[in-house]
Model the fold of this input.
Amino acid sequence: MAKPLALTSGEPAGIGPDITMKAWLRRNELKLPAFYLVGDRDFLGNRATALGLKVRFADVRAEDAVDAFADALPVVATGHVATAPPGQPDSTSADATIASIRQAVGDVLAGRASAVVTNPIAKSVLYRAGFRYPGHTEFLAELSATGGHSPQPVMMLWSPALVVVPVTIHLSLREAIAQLSSDLIVTTTRIVNTALKARFGLANPRLAVSGLNPHAGEDGSLGDEDRSIVAPAVEILRADGIQIRGPLPADTMFHAAARKTYDCAICMYHDQALIPVKTLAFDDAVNVTLGLPFVRTSPDHGTAFDIAGTGRANPSSLIEALRLAARLAAAEPA
Done:
């Protein structure tokens, strides 16, 4: 029997509970893969009542989630209660969020689940509780550590219209430029190339690398980083046999004709990658973490406190995250 997907609760005060229940209600219509939510059943029941959603719940072990999925939304308890009202994180939010992530990862590493799908978290709430990681990605890497060594996680934003990877992630622009190096570009791109082959089924991925500066530096007249950092990395990767171009001017990489020439855009910093993909595919883009020993996907949006509990939350990105997680987990790694 196929293993279920482990879905984390995310920030309880956000739209994670709303979109989880909406996705489960469409399970038959959309032929969704079986999943279970790691969280607090009573909290979910109260939110369902407030939203007027007719959802049945089943307290299960991860191993029993597939059998329960057709008739009820399976819930695996963490032992941490959640009490936050919609839009208002409270003192239970951080512990409930972190416990859900830990247990979902543990289930996948133990072979009880096939992949992790994470609902949105509120990083500011976690920071106030002492959370020391920039975000999900870095926390997942530490949870995956073996022998004291953590894997290097790579954040991919996937959609049918565009696939992007930022080389630097949750950093200020000043810090991103300071940390950018040829080695980081090379390491990141090798992980991307391997994943595109092993998980996405591309025999020879076509990669496009953006420049850092306007017009990719205009041969040094608008900054030397593209000549001294980006171009040498591209040459190293090309010598590896990777099909890659760059550095390319970022302002001409994302129109329709340009997107047809590559399978993934490697970008130098967060907004350079996320602005185009969120513009083109805000409702169905999926966040994928590469480089981990398991598959992890997530909706490409935040907690949306302003609409939590109103019934207006759109589950489309979560639905795509569930579908993509099942597809990638089923692929045989190289």
